[in-house]
Amino acid sequence: MLKRATSFHADVEAGRWAIVTRHGRRQWEVIVESDADAKALVVVTAYPIEGK
Predict the structure, then answer these.
(1) CA 40 to chain CA mean position, Å
(2) In whole angstroms, what is the distance from residue 8 CA to residue 31 CA?
(3) CA-CA distances (angstroms) from residue 33 to 21, 24, 30, 50?
(4) Scanning 12, 22, 29, 35, which has the fewest C-beta atoms within 10 Å of its C-beta?
(5) What Å distances lie between residue 8 and 4, 13, 21, 37, 49, CA to CA?
């Protein structure tokens, strides 16, 4: 899902990012944050963007 990302922007929560992507012919937003200790990107949640 993330390999089809089209854009990203800062989330309302500090340290998180919203990634806009496509999945199943719908546009989705995936909220992620960095885990520096684990050197990983953590997916917090994902949801379809209605009307797009």
Answers:
(1) 14
(2) 10
(3) 16, 24, 10, 23
(4) 12
(5) 12, 14, 9, 23, 14
Report the mean per-residue pLDDT for the chain: 94
Domain boundaries, the chain: 2-48
Sign of CA dihedral 20, 7, 40, 1: positive
Rounded Cα distance, 31 and 36, in Å: 16
b vs e for 17-28, b when ≥16 Cβ sit within 10 Å of the residue's Cβ?
bbbbbeeeeeeb
Query: By three-state DSSP, how is residue 15 classified?
Result: coil
**Tell me, what DSSP letter sits at residue 11?**
-
